[in-house]
Design brief:
Largest sheet of chain A: 6 strands, mixed
Distance between the termini of chain B: 36 Å
Strand content of chain A: over 45%
Distance between the termini of chain A: 40 Å
Largest interface: A-B, 23 and 28 residues
Order of helices and strands of chain A: EEEEEEEEEEE
Number of strands of chain B: 11
Number of helices of chain A: 0
Shape of chain A: globular
Oligomer: heterodimer
Shape of chain B: globular
Structural class of chain A: mainly beta
Radius of gyration of chain B: 13 Å
Order of helices and strands of chain B: EEEEEEEEEEE
Strand content of chain B: over 45%
Helix content of chain A: under 10%
Number of strands of chain A: 11
């Protein structure tokens, strides 16, 4: 089945550093979404991307929908301790009814 | 703002018992999705409903069934529970008429003992 390859699996960074993570797929996706999940809670939508090449920001977060529609990246600038969590990319494959395929997640740890 | 409401938040069942999870979508959202997330895993799509009809099916076991009611709330029924069914179950809702405003509930943690 379709898969999303998300990397890195985990990151340990110093407060104030920038963070970059990405997702790739061998298939085309119509929509890319980036979520943050904290323990015991549901994923919270950070950024949604709908068009190839689209670059969208949400505060310190920036994400792009790759021009080939097979990849996306998420950048977090000037990280702070509350950025800690698991970040998931998710994509809606072409022809889907909206169900999402998730990447395996990037676990972010921030040292004050 | 109203969010996706799931109940119960926690559920403990014994093997071979049944469980029913409920999901109340955001008002005016017509589509509901169910996901299962095992410990340390990414969410896996189970099933979705649009306007009370099943719209897509993922890796949902035959022991599970779901439906969406006239008020758009949805229930996931799980029978003959197995230890491996222990997981977080999330419901998400969206509106087909607008952008993909996918919102997840806080989940139900099911523990099968």
């Amino acid at each position: 089945g379709q898969q999303l390859n998300q990397s890195p699996q985990s990151m340990f960074i110093q407060e104030g550093e920038d963070v970059s993570m990405n997702c790739t797929s061998s298939s085309i996706f119509n929509t890319w979404l980036w979520y943050k999940q904290e323990p015991g809670e549901g994923p919270v939508l950070l950024i949604a991307l709908y068009k190839a090449g689209e670059l969208t920001s949400n505060g310190r977060l920036t994400a792009q929908f790759g021009i080939t529609r097979k990849d996306s990246f998420l950048n977090i600038s000037a990280s702070i301790p509350s950025d800690v969590g698991i970040y998931f990319c998710a994509g809606a494959p072409g022809g889907s009814q909206g169900n999402l395929i998730f990447g395996k997640g990037t676990k972010l740890s921030v040292k004050p | 703002a109203a969010g996706v409401i799931q109940s119960p938040r926690h559920l403990i069942k014994e093997k071979r018992e049944t469980a029913t999870l409920k999901c109340y979508p955001i008002p005016r959202h017509d589509t509901v999705y169910w996901y299962q997330q095992g410990p340390g895993q990414d969410p896996q799509f189970l099933i979705s409903f649009y306007e009370k009809m099943q719209s897509d099916k993922g890796s949902i076991p035959d022991r599970f069934s779901a439906q969406q009611f006239s008020d758009y709330h949805s229930e996931l029924n799980m029978s003959s529970l197995e230890l491996g069914d222990s997981a977080l179950y999330f419901c998400a809702s969206s509106s087909r008429t607008g952008a993909l405003g996918y919102t997840f509930g806080s989940g139900t943690r099911l523990t099968v003992v």
